[in-house]
Structure formats: structure tokens, C-alpha cells
From TrEMBL:
Protein name: SH3 domain protein
Family matches, as PANTHER family: OS01G0621700 PROTEIN (PTHR34969), TH1 DOMAIN-CONTAINING PROTEIN (PTHR34969:SF1)
UniProt key word Transport: no
Gene Ontology CC, one term: myosin complex
Domain TH1, chain residue ranges per copy: 21-212
Pfam families assigned: Myosin_TH1, SH3_9
Length: 407
């Protein structure tokens, strides 16, 4: 039932983009996980949206400001709100100077006017809010986010359909500040084959260029075909059964002698014919033994004769013992889902793969507190225990999401 539900979710998500947006090759069949932050390790985030509120989607997204400068925010989606949470230095005396989580924006789902996307394979989405400013976001899990958002919008508005606008150019309404409001534009272009978007701000316009993706009519693969290895084995078995048996060759002189003396334990001619030259077995006759027993093979006299049958084959050689496995220095975790790396410092793996867990906390040494805090804001989830662990597959050491594996 769980597998059928996952396939149904993929199919519903595919319907939202079918014929309208190009798809990414490695994200088309990705399973929906929901929590990509690890809320169980961050109770503060849960408390900011309500301890009793169920979070259906949680991920650290990239948000762009009026100057198109990126920053990292935690996006939490519940049945009522879409909440963006950032970090600021505390002004309280007890925690003065420390980074604390604060709600940057909370949007009532019913107030979302539309969601803008491009027709290409990029990860940008534009949240247009009724009588309010626009949020420009980027997330590799946009399909899962929009699927969940569309579901809650329908529930929140009692049957309403979330408007999805697939355009090459979108207009962004800025937040009104002391510097004023105004608008910006984001223009999308396709060129080359790169799957990573290239951003070029030019005044009030942000140009986003990305390579060609899969056709917008591509559907997720709901069932995997059998591997080529299995098909070759089946073909081999079929051909073996249908191979016609060879005609029996003429009897050897020793066999004629045995038959003339009434010896019934004769060698099958098929076995004699299948024995390759130089191979030891009952089909080979020793001259010395034949002279001792009047030309009758020793194997025949002692009754050591293999049974009749066309499937008799020589005994296989014993396999060489496998070398002992090298002891692992780290504990091993097992992957529950497939994951395709979104960055160069991440691991890619498939469900069932084993990963050596090196540490549950990605620690880095950065000179100076100022630089540390800046990097902490950009890649917070990579530096603490918010769900990103460091592991090893083969010779590669990189990060991977903790909620994709089982200890």
C-alpha cells in the first residue's frame, strides 16, 4: 500500500507540470520525503509554526532579495500557512549576539494569488500573494512543495485550484520599505546542456539561463523493467532446453568388448561424447587397467559408472575462498530511498546502499567569528545536526540527508 501511495503521489505531481514545464532527469522519479530539515532535532522550528501543527514539507530554500542577493531560509508548510524562518542576532541580554530563529514571513495559504514558474527545468518559483509583495525562492524539491501546496490550497479555499503560471518572464512586486517599493523582473532562457542555472543580474532584471531538460511530456517511470542480466539468463535457459540432442557416436572398442561379455553397467555414449580430450573420468580407459582385467575398464569392473542422462556434467571446480573483508572503521547505515546529489559536496546513492557513517555533525574550521557566522547563515544545515551527516561510499566522502537512511 505504501508503494502504491508513493506512485500515486508521483502521478499527481506529474499532472501539475505535464505539457507545461521541462523535467529534471534525476528528480523525476524521486520519492517524496517531506521533512528535509530534521524537525525532531529542531523543536524551535516546530514551535514557531505551532507545536500541534503538522508540517507536511520542510526544507532550507534559497530566497532572493530586491538586489537578487541569495540567503538561506527554512520553509515550513502546514495545512494553513507557508512560513519562512531565518536567523538574526539576539538583542536580549541573556543571548545577546547569538543567532536565534525568527519568522521572516508567514503567508496564509488562502491568500496566495498564484505561483510563477518557468517552462524550463530550473528550480525557481515565484509566490504571488494577494495585495502583498512577492517572494522569489529556489528549491530542488519544487515539485513536492507545489504538490503539497496545491492540496492544502484546495482544502483551505474549499475546492479552489492553485493557479500555476508557466512564463518566460515574471514580474516581482517588492516589499514596501523606507526605500520604496517597485517591481523587478526575472527572465528565463535555455541554452546548452548544463543542469545548473546561471544567474546574471542586470539592473532590475535577473537573467536565468539553464540547459535543455527532459520534454515537458515526460512521465515518471512507475514500474522498472527487468534488468538485462535477467533477460539474458532466461534466454540461455530457453535455448538450453530446446537444443536437440546429438546422435550417439559409434561404440568404443572397450565398450563393444564389455557388451559381448554381458556387462550391463555400460557407459552412456552421450557421456563419452561430452568428455573433452585430456579430462579425467570414466570415459578414459587406462591401458594398464585394461590389461589386468582382460581389456575391461577398471571402472566397469568395479561398477563405478555414472547414471544415464543427458544432463550429467563434470563436477565444478571448488571456488577459491574469498579474501576476508577489510574491517570498517565506521558504523554502517542503510539507505531507505534514492538520493541524487544536488551539490558537489553531497553523496548520491540508491535505496539499499550501505554508507559508512563518519560523523553526524559536519564540523569545519573557519578563521574568525565573522566569517563563521556568515557561512553559518548560508549553510547552517550543513554545519549542525539538522539532518545532514557525513558519510563515505567507496573512496568518496561527502554529505547526505540523515532522514534518507536507517541506522
Amino acid at each position: 500500500m505504501a508503494g502504491e501511495l508513493k506512485e500515486e503521489n508521483k502521478e499527481q505531481a506529474s499532472d501539475l507540470f505535464f505539457g507545461k514545464k521541462e523535467r529534471r532527469r534525476y528528480s523525476l522519479n524521486r520519492n517524496f520525503v517531506g521533512d528535509y530539515i530534521g524537525l525532531e532535532y529542531h523543536p524551535v522550528l516546530q514551535s514557531l509554526v505551532g507545536k500541534r501543527e503538522r508540517v507536511d514539507f520542510a526544507h532550507t530554500v534559497t530566497k532572493y532579495d530586491r538586489r537578487f542577493k541569495p540567503s538561506k531560509l527554512d520553509l515550513l508548510l502546514t495545512a494553513k500557512h507557508l512560513t519562512l524562518i531565518g536567523r538574526e542576532k539576539s538583542k536580549e541580554k541573556a543571548n545577546k549576539g547569538q543567532l536565534v530563529e525568527v519568522v521572516k514571513r508567514q503567508i496564509d495559504i488562502a491568500h496566495i494569488l498564484s505561483v510563477g514558474l518557468s517552462p524550463y527545468q530550473d528550480d525557481f518559483l515565484i509566490l504571488n500573494v494577494r495585495e502583498n509583495y512577492t517572494s522569489l525562492l529556489e528549491t530542488p524539491f519544487k515539485t513536492e512543495l507545489i504538490t503539497a501546496l496545491s492540496k492544502h490550497f484546495k482544502e483551505r479555499t474549499r475546492g479552489g485550484i492553485l493557479q500555476l503560471e508557466f512564463l518566460q518572464t515574471h514580474t516581482i512586486t517588492l516589499k514596501k520599505t523606507r526605500f520604496g517599493g517597485g517591481t523587478r523582473q526575472i527572465s528565463f532562457h535555455v541554452a546548452g546542456v548544463s543542469q545548473r542555472a546561471e544567474l546574471k543580474p542586470n539592473g532590475k532584471v535577473l537573467h536565468v539561463t539553464i540547459g535543455q531538460g527532459l520534454p515537458n511530456t515526460t512521465r515518471p517511470a512507475l514500474a522498472r523493467p527487468p534488468t538485462g542480466y535477467q533477460r539474458r539468463v532466461d534466454k540461455l535457459r530457453t535455448s538450453t532446453r530446446k537444443t536437440p540432442s546429438r546422435p550417439a557416436p559409434p561404440l568404443h572398442s572397450s565398450q563393444q568388448y564389455a557388451n559381448s561379455h554381458g556387462i550391463t553397467n555400460e557407459l552412456p555414449t552421450s557421456i563419452v561424447d561430452r568428455r573433452p580430450s585430456g579430462q579425467s573420468g570414466v570415459s578414459q580407459i587406462s591401458t594398464g587397467n585394461a590389461s589386468r582385467y582382460g581389456g575391461v575398464p577398471t571402472a566397469l569392473v568395479q561398477g563405478r559408472v555414472e547414471p544415464r542422462g543427458a544432463d550429467v556434467r563434470p563436477a565444478p571446480r571448488p571456488n577459491k575462498p574469498k579474501p576476508p573483508a577489510k574491517p570498517r572503521l565506521y558504523p554502517v547505515v542503510k539507505a531507505l530511498y534514492d538520493y541524487d546529489a544536488q551539490d558537489t559536496d553531497e553523496l548520491s546513492f540508491s535505496a539499499g546502499d550501505e554508507i559508512e557513517l563518519m560523523q553526524k555533525r559536519k564540523l569545519m574550521t573557519i578563521e574568525g567569528t565573522k566569517h563563521y557566522c556568515y557561512y553559518l547563515r548560508l549553510k547552517r544545515s550543513r554545519l549542525d545536526d539538522s539532518g545532514w551527516w557525513q558519510g563515505k561510499i567507496g573512496d568518496k566522502i561527502a554529505l547526505f540527508p540523515a532522514n534518507y537512511v536507517q541506522e
